[in-house]
Amino acid sequence: MAVAPATPAYRDAMTGEERKSYSLAELTDRFGGTVLGDAAIRVRQVAPIETAGPSEITFLTNRKFQKLLDSSKAGAVIVGKDATSGAAISCIVCDNPYAYYARVAALLNPEPAAEAGIHPKAFVHSAARVASSASVAACAVVEAGAQIGEHAVVGANCFVGRHAMIGEGTRLHPNVTVYHDCIVGKRVIMHSGAVIGADGFGMAMDAGRYVKIPQIGRVLVGDDVEIGASTTIDRGALADTVIEEGVKLDNQIQIGHNCRIGAHTAIAGCAGIAGSVTIGSHCRIGGSAMISGHLSIADRVDISGGTLIAKSITKPGTYTSVFPFSPHEDWLKNASLLRHLHEMMDRIRSLEQQIKKMEGQ
Amino acid sequence: MAVAPATPAYRDAMTGEERKSYSLAELTDRFGGTVLGDAAIRVRQVAPIETAGPSEITFLTNRKFQKLLDSSKAGAVIVGKDATSGAAISCIVCDNPYAYYARVAALLNPEPAAEAGIHPKAFVHSAARVASSASVAACAVVEAGAQIGEHAVVGANCFVGRHAMIGEGTRLHPNVTVYHDCIVGKRVIMHSGAVIGADGFGMAMDAGRYVKIPQIGRVLVGDDVEIGASTTIDRGALADTVIEEGVKLDNQIQIGHNCRIGAHTAIAGCAGIAGSVTIGSHCRIGGSAMISGHLSIADRVDISGGTLIAKSITKPGTYTSVFPFSPHEDWLKNASLLRHLHEMMDRIRSLEQQIKKMEGQ
Amino acid sequence: MAVAPATPAYRDAMTGEERKSYSLAELTDRFGGTVLGDAAIRVRQVAPIETAGPSEITFLTNRKFQKLLDSSKAGAVIVGKDATSGAAISCIVCDNPYAYYARVAALLNPEPAAEAGIHPKAFVHSAARVASSASVAACAVVEAGAQIGEHAVVGANCFVGRHAMIGEGTRLHPNVTVYHDCIVGKRVIMHSGAVIGADGFGMAMDAGRYVKIPQIGRVLVGDDVEIGASTTIDRGALADTVIEEGVKLDNQIQIGHNCRIGAHTAIAGCAGIAGSVTIGSHCRIGGSAMISGHLSIADRVDISGGTLIAKSITKPGTYTSVFPFSPHEDWLKNASLLRHLHEMMDRIRSLEQQIKKMEGQ
Questions:
Q1: pTM value?
Q2: Is B204 on the interface with C (CB under 8 A)?
């Protein structure tokens, strides 16, 4: 079982499908922009600028890579309006080459349509409603009262709890769990291992033992949200946990009960958001960042990877709390002093006083 | 698929069930405490103090929110013994309002009973023993020699390995994995994606390649433990990994092989406990905290969120190692100096010597 | 359901199997090394030095534990060539006692063979190829074009996507997800909850909304890799994500799209590797470590647990960025000064100038 090279050609061979090609003119008809060069050139796959071949289209978002264009064998390239013309290669000129590329890549790589209907090895409760164009794959389980919208896909081994709703065109990849009563919007993508609506971490200490606080809220997931693999979003304790539209969550993120994540905020992998945190819209939270409970983060805040936020943030900007790494021996010398900063400061103050006194003499 | 407001009324409408109501007298009969006001008032749901209506009961744990009571439309409120009387609203007075609230909330929101029996789309090995009152849901798999106790629930798509035991009244939510030979106590709750008993991370380096150390211990989970979504607890290498009774684990926690987590310890989301760590009882470990391998943590230790513990802790108390966050530009200025602390200290020492010398002149 | 003691005897009783025993001579025939003492002694299980009984074999990797040998009741012990002789107990002397122990433990604890064939409650697409000696367990799903190699095991509730390949002798524990087109080598072990090939976190911002970048690369997993529970490895955006042979990944690790992890590198639990990171071979990455995107880490680099790497590392060595923990009150005093390091440095500089001036007088 040798590993074949990861070329699009390989993938085509694998699927045995003839990939559809598009001319540059067809692309600009569809997505806007203008062609510089031969609008009749046809492309059938996207590729990195270094490896793209004549039937492939690539993109350039940074002028410093312009040089790469000269030696590229790509059939065409998507460039911004500031790109220097003159390359021998045909271009599509547009406002946002990266977004343009995304749309072309999606056009050239359509996801195989899931077969509509309920697989005979799935279990759908008789009191669930599955739209006729929806797909429920093998070994998926849909409980009583649940609703699966038109063109939605419930992947293999998924679970959709009682009275949960899955919106139109939403795709649950295999092994996703949506607990009872949670509501998922339209065109949402959830990757494998995601868990929506598990109980929040709520308990009262009573005479040395914890008493569980029932978690009776829901999770509401807005339209066009994407949720990464093994990301977990807890249901609310009393009110709901809310993920607003267009939020993008990477893998292995934990979002506690009663959080609200504002529209079009993106959170990178392994971030942990404690309970009752409100995050504004258009924020960007770095990987492995942590936000303590009950805080509020303004719109358009960027939080660096690995940063722990322990106070609310009221102003847009970038916030960081990373300890810079160094070779271990250097770290040892410096880290030991961290516990003595207070003492260092005292010694500086005392020096200042001594000098003042000496100067006063 | 519009999102209905998250009111209990909504939820009632969804399920079509008439929710049972209780008078304050019935509640105090059941849970203790005394009624101040009209003991005949009936409540049917819990709600936050700001939104609670006449058929709902709320609670007050902090005197600073007392003011909210005056404007609350709640049918009743659970308060502590120190609450100022005089509110127009009827009260249940008790020692621990939050725990009392938890019990009332559980009474008013009973979990729908799982249907006893083995779903026809589950697979239970003929050499497994499933109690007659237990429930094994669709697409769950129970292997040879496994035992499922009375009233236990094995959710959809769960896996219970050979010779594993699931105690009385324990509930595995969908998509939980319990590996072979692991033993889970009574009334345990495991959320979706939890993995109990995967191999610990043990290997020996030999001539440039790792040799796997077989992990032949088990995981033992005590009674009344709760395990969050996507939390993983590795089986022991030789001896067992032990989670003592009443431990509460949030989501996405990793517990390495041969750990022992003491009774009634709570660990928040995303914490990582390396192998062979012993944690005492009644500890509280914050979110994203990390504990290095082979350490020992005393009883009643609190560890702050995001803190890395690299030495054993022998005394109760709170321990912290968080780098405080700041706007990125401020952080840049200060963080760069962290690598020069040792040098700063040297310069302070040298200043002290110079001054000593000057004073000596 | 009382918890029986975790002795091998218990486990034997549970499975009802008579465990096979081996003489020390048989072991050295198989694995090398030499016997000191009685080569006819038979052992049937491995055990820690403190609890091992006469039918058990233990090991000693550190001379400082030599004393334990005197009181040990073990039937035999595996020791290094530097071990002091004289113990009453029979020894196998070898170069690498820990690796030797690993091999003996594997011999004495063979994994029960999975039954070859496709379980009637699994679903295997008619256009998938499953080798005749492979095992596909209950409620597993194998899609069109997928290939399952000889002696491979696809556990219960696993998903293998279209055109994915699972190599010879590879074992997917229950609830593992392998997305379409991913290629998994030989003798790979994947633990429950692992997700291979979910989409990388790629999107372009366009007029306030994110546009998804299709992720059309694959994940390639080399031979002899082990992947822990709930570890997620994203597929490449254009090129592939590559895990080279012999890599060992613990639980809950996130590996972003387009990473390449070098051969025989080991990564401990909860580590987060952002996208497009290249890690060399024979590295050791500690638990909860984080590596920022697009970095390159040389061969044989060790990164301490909890360390965030934000710059490429070109030289072997150990690197650390941990803030040392302390009792909370001490931390408060010192942490507040971290935001004033720059100011402390300014004050030191100013003191130096004053003294220089005074000395110049």
A1: 0.95
A2: yes
